[in-house]
Amino acid sequence: MSSFGTRTQAELAILLVAAIWGATFVVVKEALADIGPFLFLGIRFIIAFLVLVLLSFRDIKQIKASTLSEGSLLGFFLFIGYVFQTMGLKYTSASNAGFITSVSVVLVPIIYAVINLKRPSFITIFTALTAAIGLFLMAVKAGSFTLAYGDILVLVCAFGFAFHVVFVARLSHQHNPVAITGVQILFVGVVCFIAGVFAEPLPPYLSANTAVALFITAVFATALAFLIQNALQKYSTPSRFAIVLASEPVFAALTGYLWAGETFTLRTLTGAGLILAAMLISILVRRPKDPVGPSH
């Protein structure tokens, strides 16, 4: 098969990952009616780790002491991202959560510049302002100047994911990618499960909605999504993959509209369009050595 055909297949597979990630916003939102966010995440990520062990035990065996320490740091940022995203989903729409989470792509170059004591470029400032305007239109009601509570939580999640991308670029190349990802996933799972046991009521049983949501998010949206990315990234460029993954909030909006009956106004559509445009510009103008990664 030609390299073009292989690249196309790889990018279609990543598009499927983006679609799964987009769909999980609605799936998780519905599951949260039956289970607390910490318990949900704890069970989800522990199951995902076990799936990784079953599918890539040889890689998981390469976990070293340094992998544990640096993977736990990355896991902390992942924990912030997923906890605030999941808590935010209790109070905002799936489509809002999808687009606000994607602001992390725009935040990455800003955080990267601050950490490296560099002045952000004009295009970085431009994309940040564009995303901020989009966020304002999506998350602030007309006549108000206050972000909705759920949208504030998801915005914190975007910062968590952005810091995660920056530090993954600094640390992950020193370790087996499956091994260090396994540590991150297990860190999130264990910390969330412990927090859930102490802070949330234990559900008497897992409803069908919750069981399906756990299966989809743990197996497809976490373990298999990572393995697909890791296996296929060599067939394309990071920027091309990032552009494909940028479709995630679009899938979140479509799923919210078709599955959950969410509606959109001209104001929210304009805001979503500005955030999407800021994402794409940020990806397209990045330098080869700049960190870039998925938002979910």
Report on the architecture of this protein.
- There is one protein chain.
- The chain is mainly α.
- The chain has one domain.
- 76% of the residues lie in helices and 0% in strands.
- The chain contains 13 helices and no strands.
- The chain has helices spanning 3-31, 37-55, 57-60, 65-89, 94-101, 104-115, 122-139, 149-171, 177-199, 208-232, 238-245, 248-259, 266-284.
- Helix 4 (65-89) packs across helix 9, helix 5 packs parallel to helix 8 (149-171) and helix 5 runs antiparallel to helix 12.
Pick out its properties.
mainly alpha, globular, about 300 residues
Uncertain stretches of 5 or more adjacent residues: none
User: What about the largest sheet?
Assistant: none
Q: Compute the number of structural domains.
A: 1
Helical amount? over 70%
Instruction: Note the total helix count.
Output: 13
Structural class: mainly alpha
Terminal residue distance: 31 Å
Return Rg in Å.
18 Å
Describe the structure concisely.
With 296 residues, the chain is mainly α. It contains 13 helices and no strands. The chain has one domain.
Can you lay out the helices and strands and say which pair or pack?
Elements: H1 3-31, H2 37-55, H3 57-60, H4 65-89, H5 94-101, H6 104-115, H7 122-139, H8 149-171, H9 177-199, H10 208-232, H11 238-245, H12 248-259, H13 266-284
Helix pairs in contact: 1-5, 1-10, 1-11, 1-12, 2-9, 2-10, 4-8, 4-9, 5-8, 5-12, 6-7, 6-8, 7-13
